[in-house]
Amino acid sequence: IWNITLRDPAYWCLHIVRCENTSVHDVSILGDFNTPNNDGIDIEDSNNTFITRCHIDTGDDAICPKTYVAPLYNLTVTDCWIRTKSSAIKLGSASWFEFKSLVFDNITIFESHRGLGMQIRDGGNVNGITFSNMNISTRYYDPSWWGRAEPIYITTCPRDSSSKEGSISNLLFVNITIVSENGVFLSGSPNGLLTDIKFKNMNITLRRWSNYTSGLVDYRPGCQGLMNHSATAGIIMEHVNGFSVENVDLKWSDDNLNAWNVPLEFRPSTVNNVSFVGFSSGLLHEIV
Predict the structure, then answer these.
(1) Spans of all domains in the chain
(2) For the chain, how are helix, strand and coil distributed in percent, rounded to 5?
(3) For residues 131, 133, 198 and 147, what is the CA-based torsion angle, rounded to 10 degrees?
(4) Is the model's pLDDT at 283 over the cut of 90?
(5) Which residues pair with 93 in a beta bridge?
(6) If phi over 0 gives left and psi between -120 and 50 gives alpha, with beta otherwise, what is residue 267?
(7) Per-residue pLDDT at 70
(8) What gap in Å lies between CA 48 and CA 127, rounded to an integer?
(9) What does the similarity note say (predicted)?
């Protein structure tokens, strides 16, 4: 699939279902920024998929791997530009089977509601995912849309009482620059810990520019739903076993918000084997 422009999709725009060896390049998707379920590219139960040089500007999730009836292996996405009122890249929330060996490289995410996301809700496991060489800006939109301006959002929990807890392991985030209205959210579950997560060579700047209110944590769909949370943390950790941070700089903009006061938040849960090397946090001194 190449050299085409897709405009105003009413629902999921480009849907790749149970395919092998698919290539998508030089595709533009121009959707309605205010329409839910207006996804860009959904990759479902498919293996060996290559996506490059795509421009996606749409209301709902832009690049969205899902597993309904089979695993999803070997997805590579490079050199794309994305804007969305949902997640720019999201694994799930349909996640009954495994996601393995996914690479996302050289991607620009512009003023999206959520940057890099995982919503694992149906018992599938995630292993071996790399996010590299990215520029990300995320901001608040109306809370009726899933997302709370998280540049990185990694979660696993049961969708409902009949669902299982999947695991997420071996994630690498490297060479990433972030400007965001909210911090990173890492949340496993009691029987689905996040393990072996690594942040390397990252710059995170927190500042406000929209008029939407903060003070919420978003677990949707399922789990604990949308919850009040007063402080804005640089990184929230919950049910994590193995988190390594190397050469990461976290800065807050001086905008007189008392909420900018928690660089690292350890939620009341299991948080083990955490390492910080070359981590710095402080006020951003901007040139006026």
Answers:
(1) 2-284
(2) 0, 65, 35
(3) -60
(4) no
(5) 120
(6) beta
(7) 98
(8) 16
(9) Belongs to the glycosyl hydrolase 28 family.
